[in-house]
Design goal:
There is one protein chain. The chain starts with 7 loop residues before the first helix and ends in a 5-residue tail after the last helix. The protein has helices spanning about 10-15, 25-40, 65-75, 80-85, 105-110, 145-195, 200-215, 220-230, and strands spanning about 45-50, 55-60, 90-95, 115-125, 130-135. Helix 1 (about 10-15) runs antiparallel to helix 2 (about 25-40). The longest helix is centred in the C-terminal third of the chain and has 52 residues, at about 145-195. It has a 5-stranded antiparallel beta sheet with strand order 2-1-5-4-3, with helices on both faces. By secondary structure, the protein is of the alpha+beta class.
Length: about 240
Amino acid sequence: MPQPPLDLTDALVRLGTIRHDRADLNTVLARIAQVAKESLPGTAEVSVTLVHGSEARTAAYTGELALRLDEWQYEQGRGPCLDAATTGTTMIVHDMATESRWPEWARSALGAGVGSSLSIGLPIQEAVVGALNVYGSRARAFDDVTGAAQTIAGYAAIALANAHLYESTATLAQQMQTAMQSRAVIEQAKGIIMGQRRCGPEEAFSILAKVSQDSNRKLREVAEALVRMTVEGREP
């Protein structure tokens, strides 16, 4: 027996409790899609489309049907989820049988057992936009819940932006840590060369760079090898 839809307040509470420090972006998107499916009466499946430049992909979906409906749009280069994502607006198909804006896609959707759809734009950042796509098995499934869907999409957009920001910040922190580690080991290697060759820091760096170029290895790898050999008491 199907469960009754979630109360809108409960749905928003679920979205508000997503921990971005414990979930990656794909997990956040999957959570958003599932909450939308459980919250909106008449929903068969839900997906989230992300568009970066000219590339579109389905980043989360509750069932294979939603994935197929999205991918048919990507193949044709047009459809409600793409238009919603790129314009940041809401695109509703009341009845696939009479839809005229995307007739080829609507015929395919109707043949797959989908009678209506609702796609809501999710502005995430300048370089990435998206859409929350809700598919219904009957016509006019979302006429009375468009407002609720837009509310959920608004919270979803905030959750997505936060997740994207957290992921970007974590990536930047990792890159900075790697850069600092590289610099540290290179400085160690320079110190070793300066001690062995009785030369200055610029000449030591030039020696490292030449070994890197001649051996077709990264500068950090050359530095790490020199430091490791010195620690182990071997001649470089």
